[in-house]
């Protein structure tokens, strides 16, 4: 899955590990586990998260299971480049919310000999690749895809279905806003949403025609 010791100790390069999956799949939990192991080994660890993520705590990276580790909220990826000097390990949570420069920053850190651990959603609520995550997964040495359990079928879930009525790409929330679904359950749920939208549009057109006739 990933290495904590390089085979050739003379090579002064680090690497990138990406942990990805849907909502409630344990991405942050796995990130915290790896970072705490590094801290226990007396390695110098710095953890970052986007300032926009204030769901549980302003400064802590917190999993849905209430496991936590102290972090530094940053406004953009460039700030990580400035704050991650002289580290052995750098952790980045919710990477999908960062700008595209996060890819260059992670590769620069790895090229300096730093182990870079990144966690984030690989797909948005529409089922599309999310932000810089595809590029991070492509350039990473190790990619771990974790899964939630579908709330409707009990199968493995890799889609994050949005229950809240919002089309905004970034919408922070927990179980009240999202639920993890399998491919089949997600397809049926999205089909139902599209039918609902068509019915609403048809009703609006009908009402508009009535007003015009009057």
Structure description:
The chain has 214 residues and is of the alpha/beta class. Helices cover 33% and strands 23% of the residues. The chain contains five helices and twelve strands. Strands 5-2-6-7-1-8 form a six-stranded parallel beta sheet, with helices on both faces. A two-stranded antiparallel ribbon has the order 3-4.
Mean pLDDT, to the nearest integer, reads 85
Q: Tally the structural domains.
A: 1
Number of separate strands: 12
Q: Pairing-aware structural class of the strands and helices?
A: alpha/beta
- How many separate helices? 5
Beta-strand residue fraction: 15-25%
Order of helices and strands: EHEEEEHEHEHEEEEEH
Name the CATH architecture: 3-Layer(aba) Sandwich
Rg for CA atoms: 20 Å
> What is the rounded distance between the termini?
68 Å
Brief write-up:
This protein has helices at 27-40, 77-83, 101-111, 133-139, 183-213; strands at residues 15-21, 45-50, 60-62, 68-70, 72-74, 89-92, 115-121, 142-146, 148-149, 156-157, 159-162, 178-181. The protein has 214 residues and is α/β, with parallel strands linked by helices.
